[in-house]
Write a structure and sequence with these properties.
By secondary structure, this protein is an alpha/beta fold. The protein is built from 10 helices and 9 strands.
Length: 317
């Protein structure tokens, strides 16, 4: 496939930085999150299944080092990769006692690891943990990225999906991550049933204004047995069409700072136990359709990024 030029791709960022292909190695820890165990809420997000976000991961009973070595061998051979990012993917990976968290990070510092990505929640970001990660970054000369699940800036929708936090916690987390010079990859779901195009634009504007470095876009998938799945089966919610999702992705990208790296514009989703998955179409076909439409329209990431730094007085410049 030809190189994507309509948005700032993660693969190009990694290749430019490291001079070769770099692949993520997923790590699955036996974790929960404070929105499940009663600390901030119960039941978790209404879309979250028992496996969290790691439906293809190895068993959490396997040690971190062994998971990395197994995945490194498989991915290294398949993709001819020699450099890797250790990706703490499942549930809330900073929701651990500090010393245990440190041990997990240190166990991931094996040969050929050039970066660490840590998936977590905005309300589980703390100065002590970030200060430690900043020291690891300097000592080992590796990139460290905090992957924050925000999903939407619409605080009414955040309550609907039972996130257990509001927009304020996300802003606080983003400011702290920037303070310690770590990278922020924010996760957004663009087809939540309670959001509209105004929310799509505001997602892009707030993320851009906070100086976020990376973005992951998701299309909502619905897992049987979840609270969202029950709403879906009872006909109490409806999802936008694939064509509407494509328009939302393009709108989001046009308002987004062109310097932000896009890890993906639609995610892979499990078909097992799913009631709805990417309109029954391959994720890469939808991605290619988005790219094709943007090319045809001469649209690019950042074409509408003109709203910061005093838009109201720019006429005087």
């Amino acid at each position: 496939m030809n190189q994507i030029t309509v948005y700032n791709t993660y693969s190009k960022y990694l290749n430019d930085k490291y001079g070769e292909k770099v692949y993520k190695l997923p790590i699955n820890l036996p974790l929960t999150c404070p929105n499940r165990d009663g600390t901030v809420g119960k039941g978790g997000c209404i879309f979250c299944g028992e496996e969290g976000g790691s439906f293809e991961n190895l068993e959490s009973s396997i040690s971190i080092r062994e998971q990395l070595e197994i995945n490194k061998e498989y991915i290294g051979v398949r993709y001819k990769a020699k450099k890797f990012i250790a990706y703490f993917q499942n549930f809330t990976n900073t929701y651990l006692p500090f010393e245990k968290f440190k041990n997990c990070i240190e166990e991931a510092l094996i040969d050929d690891i050039v970066g660490i990505s840590i998936s977590t929640r905005p309300d589980c970001i703390n100065d002590r943990y970030l200060e430690y990660l900043s020291k690891v970054k300097e000592e080992y000369n590796i990139d460290i990225t905090i992957e924050l699940g925000l999903q939407t800036v619409n605080y009414y929708t955040l309550k609907k999906i039972n996130r257990g936090h509001t927009l304020a916690e996300y802003i606080d987390a983003a400011i702290k991550i920037k303070k310690y010079e770590l990278r922020n990859c924010t996760h957004i779901i663009l087809n939540l049933p309670w959001d509209n195009d105004i929310d799509v634009i505001e997602n892009a504007k707030i993320i851009s204004s906070l100086g976020v470095e990376e973005i992951k876009l998701h299309a909502l998938y619905i897992v049987d047995g979840t609270a969202l799945g029950n709403l879906y089966k009872r006909g109490e919610i409806s999802l936008i069409s694939k064509e509407e999702y494509i328009e939302r992705v393009i709108l989001f990208l046009e308002y987004l700072d062109p310097n932000i790296v896009i890890q993906r514009i639609i995610g892979r989703a499990p078909e097992k136990n799913s009631l709805f998955t990417n309109w029954n179409e391959s994720w890469w076909k939808i991605r290619d359709e988005i790219v094709s439409i943007m090319e045809r329209r001469h649209s690019r990431q950042g074409t509408k990024f003109n709203y910061l730094n005093g838009k109201g007085i720019k006429k005087f410049e």
